[in-house]
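Sample 3 of the quickstart, ligand magnesium ion:
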Amino acid sequence: MTDQTAELPKNFIRQIIDQDIATGKNDGNVITRFPPEPNGYLHIGHAKSICLNFGVARDYEGHCNLRFDDTNPEKESQEYIDAIKQDVKWLGFEWSEPKNASDYFEQLYQYAIQLIESDKAYVCSLGAEETRKYRGSLTEPGKESPYRNRSVKENLELFTAMRAGNFKEGEHVLRAKIDMASPNINMRDPILYRIKYATHPKTQDKWCIYPMYDYTHCISDALEGVTHSICTLEFEDHRPLYDWILDALNTPCHPQQIEFARLSLEYTVTSKRKLNLLIENNHVEDWDDPRMPTITGMRRRGITPESIRGFCDRIGVTKKDAFIEMSVLENCVREDLDPRAKRIMCVLDPLKVVIENYPSDQQEEFSVNNHPKDLGFGTRSIPFSNTIYIEHDDFMENPPKKFFRLAPGKEVRLRNGYNIICTEIIKNDAGEITELRCSYDPESKGTSGTRKKVKGIIHWVSAKHAINVETRLYDRLFNVPDPAVNNELASTLNLNSLKVFTNSKIEPSAKTLTLNDRIQFERQGYFCLDSKHSNKENLVFNRIVTLRDSWAKIEAQNK
Ligand code: ATP
Ligand code: MG
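Result:
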């Protein structure tokens, strides 16, 4: 992989690392980690964290661990673990051996014993409701639990019995003994362990007590020798707890937690829980629906890992939360695909055109460059005959002044072919246009100087040679830039986010396309075959992105 970040100004995290190296901290080592919870599929927000953590490790010749934060057995599954590995790999990053928080369950338990022995943790038997009341609020200090002063001996006995499965869920928890009056609620004797009779994807039924995120995370980082524990801003208020636990246990290594701003993308949501809701309510097909901002959805849509990495570089890393416009991602995709996508002609919504002065038993082949700027892509041959398809909306019976495509009596150029003039419109009983009759100018072939200049150029395919295919066009999932703001996902859904044409017509050269190809349909955008629904008999194409930002125009009109 090329190092695209080398020319960019260093973000604040890289500046911290530079300083650490200069002062000899961590012996100059840089060890990071990406710690997803396997409770769903990764999305574009995770991509930012992946590019940051793995990118930093790569550039400083350190390493980055992939660690599954698997402490909520009820919500986690092997399916998600496998999918996360596949997605990180696809994005272009590698790790040595995947780690799991559950690998450390025994060590975490022993550390908890250590906390109890040093009177820094106690077993609390308040119910959930009471615990909440005792915690206080932002404006009021909390109250100490009546169980806070249990003896070390009693705490050890109770905690051992919790592990042994002698209690019901919710009967007891283990809490850190910190400060119920702390202005930071996270420091008001946070829960470290709870009882849960759930089968874990890795440890099965070995445990019935599970450590909480805050407790698990810092110790896992320390056990792995992580130097820089990079996380999103919402964990800033958890940092004092992160540091308190590691100080209390005097771990051999004390990683530095550094927070950065989450990625939020306009017109979509970046939360596994909310994405899951879209699936449960049948608004999308699955995690890999091409409209989803998941890595698997974007992959199926045809977006390349290079585009996603380029996007993450472009948006940078800051400490201020902000929404990124969808067009930033789309432009990265276009810039990546333009130099690598062969061109082809495909008519999405076909209208039949018969060229009356072209002999019906005649046909010819045009030799055409596959890429306008890169001759290395070679040429292909496009068949032409007296019956072709053009795009329905490339014809208007009563065109406005600036319509330069086909209209009665008007001349238009067929891309790579001839000029044609519309001579007759044929309609069905309902008054819908079903066919056009045209005449062509035999002198207008190719790019020779003799041809007349016409303003409009349209794409087409020869009817007899065309392959019938399905094309799917995607639009934004939501109608508003911040659909998550009021938790009203359903009412802000864009009901037209998927448009399907089952009768599209493509050049015969499409036969040789494979799932890895990304191509440009001239005038329509970049497309790829759909890995889920396309097969040899029925080619199904996804539009990856349009050629231009059509939303910029719509948004400007709405202002
Ligand atoms: P979700 O709400 O989607 O479940 P999460 O933060 O709970 O997100 P985790 O699986 O815990 O998901 O996240 C793994 C890592 O990815 C964390 O370090 C987290 O900070 C980071 N991450 C998650 N979402 C984003 C985002 N939108 N932008 C940047 N980093 C993110
Ligand atoms: Mg989470």
